Structures are given as C-alpha cells and as structure tokens.
C-alpha cells in the first residue's frame, strides 16, 4: 500500500459523504483526472522547451564550427573573412528564429493539450487501446543479464554491460489470435507516457579509466515495425538523445540508489544533487551497482548530447557498412578507406573471431574487467584487445513466446536477443573521445524477456 496516496483518497471519500452520493464522488474523480491531465500537459511542454533549447545549442555550435573551418580556408583574405562573418551572423539568426518558432509550437501544443483535458479528453498514455484485429495489445521487453555493448573504434569501449531491468512498452495492432501472427506497434514516450522520457535509468560506463554516466532520452515514439508471435522475430526503431556526463568516479560512474532490488526504495548515493533523497531502484549492473532516474548526475558534468538512431533493432542481423562515416570517425579497423581512424592493432587486418578463440578472448574479458562478449580480437602491444572488422554486424535471436501461438493462452513470454549497429557522434570532451574512438561506430547485442498480452 502506498501510504502517501491516503490523504487524497480520504479527501475524496469525505467529499462523497458530505455532498451526498456517487455523483459527487464521480465529479471529484473527474476533477482530479482533469488536474492530472493538465499537469501532464505542462510536463510535456517542459520537455518540448528542453528539446528546442538543445537543438538551438547544437545549431549554434554547428554555425561556430563552420565559421572556424571557413576562416581557415580564407587564408588571410579580408573579403573572404568578411563574407564568412556575414554567413556566421546569418546562421546564428536562422538558429535563433528556429528556436523562437519551436517555443511557439510548444506553447500551442500546451494550449491544445489543456483544452482536450478540460473537454474530458486527454487519453491515458499509460494504457494501450484494444487491438482491433482481436490479438494481444501490449508488448513489454526487459533487458536481462548478458548484454554486450561496443562503442568506438579503439576497442577500449567494447564489451561494456548495460543496465539490467531497463524496459520498453509498446501497444500492438494488426495481429489476431489464430490467422495472422504479425503485429505492428507504437511505444509512446514522454513525461506522462508509459515509457516515460528516458530509456531506463542512467547507464554507467568505464573505458580506459574514464568514467561516464549516460542518460538516454527518447526523442520520438518507439516504432515496432514487426513482431511475429509465431516465430518471435522483431524489428524496431528507437531514436535517442544520449546525454553524456563525465563524472570521474571510477567505482560508480553513475550515482546509485540504495534500494537492494529493482522496485525497492532507498536513498541516492554518489555524485548527485539528490544525495540522501528518496529513490526507487530501476535497474542494476554487474560492476557499478543499482541505478535510478531519481538519482541523476550533476548537470554541470554534461560532456555532450549525442543523437543516436537505432534502426533497426532486430532479432535478425544488423549491419553497419565499412564505408559509412560515423560523425567524425569512420567505422572499422580495416577496409572502407578508414586509415585516419585505425584501430590500435599491431596489424589491423588481423582482427578476427579466430584471434579471440585462439587467445581465449580479449585480455579485459579474460581478467574479468569487462562483462561483455568478444566478437573480434587482435593484438596490440602484446595484449589481445577487441576490435571492429570490415562491415560491423551483430545478430540477435528470435524466440517465440510460450505457450506457442496460436495457443489462446496469454500472456506469452520468451527470452531472446535483439541486435543493432549504429554511429556514435563525438562528445564535447577529448578526454572521452580520444581513448574510446568517438565519433565512431557502436554495436550491441541485448538479451531480453519479451511478454505479449492483453491490457484493458
């Protein structure tokens, strides 16, 4: 029982008896729902303003970078410099105008949202509507132990774990109970949606003794292109704004929550403005304790906000071609003309799965420093390190939920894997970029428990 809810419940019950009957209670409940709806509108406006400001900041930085590059090309020519400065001024003005327009859009959306609340609208974004085809209407996917995350081209950011217990939810349509097992779906995100505005709690990472804490914010709703209930195959798209914090705490890169298990309450610990305040543990890690969105890192430690597009996230194979540029660093350690961004291998062309097999895995994995899984290895100064090679690919595993479709029993649950390969932009800190190899490629394999069912 959540005791903090009792005062509101007591007030509503008192209203029921004082005013006389169920009609009064229904009115009080409706007023409460409207108030909650409007509160959600205001939270969404705050998020909208935050995203607009973030985009404005990025645009100004791009204008500045273009100015510096163009001035270098001028090679002292005064007319050229004058033209570049004028272009810079125009660029900044355009960014400012776009920011103003975005803020006006946020205000308009707030007005529409509040109007819908007052008219009795404002759908509950935490509940899925019925599947019109008659099949299950909700999908839940939760990360379990055994994940592998590889970031950057040097190898030191490979084999990281992720937060166990992080979940996503999506509402399903199109599939039915016995003739069509193929569902599509949408996972709503935002302050009042079931997925909230971040993917899981903060993610602690440690590479080359550089400690970072990453908050992954959704920048669009989750798209489920296909979920096959019969085979377990799935393909999704997720777009994130990854806010990287350079925390400097090697033992706990992210603040932790003292709640011992997922869902348990505790207090915030570590480098956070909410030190000692209440928190709920939302996820756990092998090396760095339990984390919670209630315990964020200090905003002043922000080292950059990175646009990350995970498309596809798949139970099949995701591939990043060797010739594709990754916002500042080209991808693998060999092939694709990537000489300026070579992996730190004695012989980059020697990267292979067989090197890993012959040496029992990379030295970090063998010594238990890193929790992940080696896909490729090579030799660097006598050490066996993980590396990327040629086209980067990762393969998931489709596992159908049980009882197997078309058995009419729900929920159905299975534990499979999804994979992705993607580009990671550079952060604002070379303390992070240089040892890790950012901008550069990223890849992951995430084992997870998927459950499909009905929700009213």
Give the integer mean of the pLDDT values.
Answer: 84
Tell me the distance between the termini: 22 Å
Helix content: 25-40%
The structural domain count equals: 3
Uncertain regions: pLDDT < 50 for 5+ in a row? 1-29, 327-341
What does this structure look like?
The structure is a single chain. With 456 residues, the protein is α+β, with helices and mostly antiparallel strands. The chain folds into 3 domains: 8-118; 138-254 and 297-453, no CATH class; 256-296, no CATH class. Helices cover 28% and strands 29% of the residues. The chain has 6 helices and 22 strands. It has helices at residues 6-19, 22-74, 78-118, 353-359, 363-366, 430-436; strands spanning 138-143, 148-151, 167-173, 182-187, 203-207, 210-218, 222-228, 234-246, 256-257, 265-269, 278-280, 283-284, 290-291, 302-314, 317-320, 325-326, 329-330, 377-380, 383-386, 392-395, 412-424, 440-453. The strands form 6 sheets. Strands 1, 2, 3, 4, 5, 6, 7, 8, 14, 21 and 22 form an 11-stranded antiparallel sheet that branches. Strands 9-10-11 form a 3-stranded antiparallel sheet, with no helix packed on it. Strands 12-13 form a two-stranded antiparallel sheet. Helix 1 (6-19) crosses helix 2 and helix 2 (22-74) packs antiparallel against helix 3. The radius of gyration is 25 Å and the shape is globular. It starts with 5 loop residues before the first helix and ends with a strand. Residues 1-29 and 327-341 have low confidence and may be disordered.
């Amino acid at each position: 029982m959540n005791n903090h809810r009792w005062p509101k419940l007591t007030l509503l019950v008192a209203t029921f008896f004082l005013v006389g009957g169920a009609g009064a209670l229904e009115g009080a409940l409706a007023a409460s729902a409207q108030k909650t709806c409007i509160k959600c509108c205001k939270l969404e406006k705050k998020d909208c303003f935050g995203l607009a400001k973030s985009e404005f900041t990025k645009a100004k930085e791009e204008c500045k970078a273009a100015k510096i590059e163009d001035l270098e090309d001028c090679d002292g020519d005064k007319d050229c410099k004058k033209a570049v400065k004028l272009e810079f001024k125009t660029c900044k003005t355009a960014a400012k105008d776009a920011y103003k327009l975005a803020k006006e859009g946020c205000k308009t959306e707030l007005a529409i949202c509040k109007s819908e609340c007052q008219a009795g609208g404002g759908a509950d974004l935490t509940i899925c509507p019925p599947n019109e085809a008659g099949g299950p209407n909700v999908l839940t996917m939760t990360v379990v132990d055994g994940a592998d995350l590889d970031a950057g081209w040097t190898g030191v950011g490979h084999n990281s774990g992720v937060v166990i217990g992080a979940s996503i939810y999506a509402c399903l349509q199109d599939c039915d109970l016995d003739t069509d097992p193929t569902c599509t779906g949408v996972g709503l995100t935002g302050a009042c949606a079931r997925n909230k505005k971040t993917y899981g709690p903060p993610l602690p990472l440690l590479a080359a003794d550089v400690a970072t804490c990453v908050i992954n914010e959704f920048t669009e709703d989750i798209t489920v292109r296909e979920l096959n209930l019969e085979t377990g195959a799935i393909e999704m798209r997720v777009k994130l704004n990854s806010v990287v914090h350079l925390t400097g705490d090697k033992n706990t890169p992210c603040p932790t929550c003292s709640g011992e298990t997922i869902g348990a309450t505790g207090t915030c610990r570590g480098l956070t403005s909410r030190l000692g305040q209440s928190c709920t543990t939302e996820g756990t890690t092998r090396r760095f304790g339990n984390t919670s969105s209630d315990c964020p890192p200090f905003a002043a430690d922000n080292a950059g906000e990175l646009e990350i597009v995970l498309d596809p996230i798949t139970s099949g194979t995701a591939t990043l071609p060797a010739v594709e540029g990754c916002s500042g660093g080209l991808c693998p350690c060999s092939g694709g003309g990537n000489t300026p961004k070579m992996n730190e291998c004695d012989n980059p062309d020697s990267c292979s799965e067989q090197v890993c097999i012959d040496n029992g895995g990379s030295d970090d994995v063998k010594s238990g420093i890193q929790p992940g899984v080696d896909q490729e290895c090579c030799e660097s100064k006598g050490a066996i390190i993980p590396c990327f090679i040629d086209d980067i690919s990762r393969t998931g595993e489709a596992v159908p939920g049980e009882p197997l479709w078309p058995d009419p029993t729900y929920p159905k649950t299975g534990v499979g894997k999804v994979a992705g390969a993607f580009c990671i932009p550079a952060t604002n800190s070379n303390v992070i970029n240089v040892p890790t190899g950012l901008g550069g490629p990223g890849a992951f394999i995430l084992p997870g428990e998927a459950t499909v069912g009905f929700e009213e």
